[in-house]
Specification:
six-stranded parallel sheet, six-stranded mixed sheet, 12 strands, 42% helix, 15% strand
């Protein structure tokens, strides 16, 4: 026979509403009573009915996740970590991959998530109209990209500080010809490349190094793009002795370009990346580490807390730390190389 919530309540000596709150993780139930109810439910083999829970709470038990590129490492890592948190809490994920301008425009025009989700995790940076459309849903909103914005809980990092540590490391090693591989052709409204480029320029200026536009190239945030960009930088009349890549994937492409030109890092060109990709240690890449998975998990936890405690104040902006990880791809420039 099917075990009902009433059976669990009778066996635990509490009301059915208390059982419901305890098993959904809602407040108003002591830890002792919650543990007792959980144990009784497990003993009886009780499984909550999703449809009944939805009717009782008005929830869909679904979280909408909006991404610009689901196949790229950063977004995939954030999504995977967030989905684990949502799944453990009994929520499904409804994924929208908005990789093209047409798909993105259609999504924000029709807003297919309306009345279908309890909250939205946005891994893209919306413009003012798009932000207003998301806020009109009347559900908690969170993101792991961009800075603080009204109506959103944003979990992220300080892109400027991370870049400054990378470029300053190259300056302190004695490099004066420092190139940069950027991701300027990234997702729409993407502010990360701008923040990281401004930090790169600021460090050069502080060090008294004149900026050379020829030492910048777009790597499209991909390995192939990084390889193309490094090939461009090696072709200038005075190539760089060091290169900062705005992502580890572009840095790995840069290392591949050096190898194909029979050059080595750091003997011929030092290379530093950003992210601490899972393969960075394998290739010995010096990089700026950011907690990508932790950002996704924390954004998911904050969304769930806002659902369970609707009167709680949103933290607004949560900043996670970055750190420079020194490996084998950076060293002082060779005395005989261009300075």
């Amino acid at each position: 026979m099917t075990v009902s919530i009433t059976d669990v309540a009778r066996a635990a000596g509490v009301s059915a509403s208390t059982v419901s709150r305890a098993l959904r993780g809602q407040p108003g139930v002591s830890d002792e009573v919650r543990a007792q109810i959980t144990a009784v439910a497990a003993q009886l083999g009780y499984t909550a009915s999703r449809s009944a829970s939805s009717l009782a709470s008005g929830r869909t038990f679904t979280i909408g996740v909006v991404v610009p590129y689901v196949g790229r490492w950063f977004f995939g890592t954030v999504l995977d970590a967030a989905e684990h948190v949502f799944s453990a809490a009994g929520y499904d994920v409804l994924l929208y991959n908005l990789g093209s301008p047409e798909t993105r425009k259609r999504f924000f025009t029709k807003m297919p998530v309306r009345k279908r989700v309890d909250a939205v995790l946005s891994l893209l940076i919306p413009d003012e109209d798009e932000s207003a459309a998301l806020r009109s849903l009347g559900v908690p909103l969170a993101s792991t990209v961009g800075g603080a914005r009204p109506g959103f809980t944003v979990v992220g990092i300080d892109d400027r500080a991370g870049t400054e540590s990378a470029v300053r490391h190259l300056v302190n090693l004695g490099h004066r010809r420092i190139g940069m591989i950027s991701g300027s052709s990234g997702p729409l409204h993407w502010t990360t490349p701008i923040e990281r480029r401004n930090a790169y320029l600021d460090v050069l200026a502080d060090a008294g190094i004149e900026h050379d536009p020829a030492l910048e190239a777009d790597g499209d945030h991909t390995v192939d793009g990084g390889e193309r960009a490094m090939t461009e930088l090696l072709a200038v009349s005075r190539p760089p002795t060091a290169v900062y890549a705005q992502s580890d994937e572009m840095a790995m492409g840069a290392l591949r370009a050096l190898r194909r030109h029979r050059l080595k890092a750091p003997d011929d060109v030092s290379v530093v990346g950003f992210d601490d990709h899972e393969l960075s240690d394998v290739v010995g890449l010096t990089t700026v580490a950011q907690p990508v998975a932790k950002q996704g998990a924390e954004a998911a936890r904050l969304l769930l807390r806002l659902l369970d405690e609707p009167d709680a104040e949103s933290p607004g902006h949560v900043q996670m730390p970055t750190r420079l990880v020194l490996r084998e791809t950076t060293a002082p420039p060779r005395p005989r190389g261009p300075q």
